[in-house]
Amino acid sequence: MFQKEVAQRIAEKPGSKTYGILSVLLQAFYKIEYLFTVSEHVFNPPPKVKSAVIRLTRNATVSLACDEELFFKVVKASFNQRRKTVRNSVKVLSGSAPVESALLDKRAEQLSVADFVALTNAIEAGLRKQAF
After folding, report:
1. Which terminal residue of the chain, N or C, has fewer Cβ atoms less than 10 Å from its own Cβ?
2. In angstroms, rounded to a whole number, what is the distance separating the alpha carbons of residues 116 and 62?
């Protein structure tokens, strides 16, 4: 059970304003279901917010198909400046490395977990090219 807004953020799918870092990082390893809302009136004393119950079921992902440390950094950097395209948000990570991906022209809230994995691999490939 979580505060309703947190539960919605965790369970949200790509394309929504509430989809964010927490959504991506948890959905990478769990199937998340929003079950129901709990009214504040069922508690004594009643809190000032509603609660919600979500179910997290571990998915088959043992490890991501990319560098997980870089994945976390890419997700965080992408959502730090929500209104910018991913290209502008991840410049801090990629620097002048040649990163080639159509995903760079989208906004972070439009990308799925699989898209973030692909983006992480593209950034890693660009960094390797720059190193040589």
Report:
1. C
2. 17
- Tokens of residue 66, six digits: 């990319």
If you count them, how many residues does the chain have?
132
Asked if 67 and 17 touch (Cβ cutoff 8 Å), the reply is no
**Which of helix, strand or coil describes residue 26?**
helix
CB 53 within 8 A of CB 62: no
Tabulate helix, strand, coil % of the chain (nearest 5).
Answer: 50, 15, 35
Q: 19-35 pLDDT, tens per residue?
A: 999 999 999 999 999 99
* 53 and 72 both lie in a single domain: no
Q: Domain for residue 63, yes or no?
A: no
Mapped onto helix, strand or coil, the DSSP state of residue 61 is: coil
Partnered with residue 53 across adjacent β-strands are 36
Task: List pLDDT tens digits, range 74-98.
Answer: 999 999 988 889 999 998 888 777 8
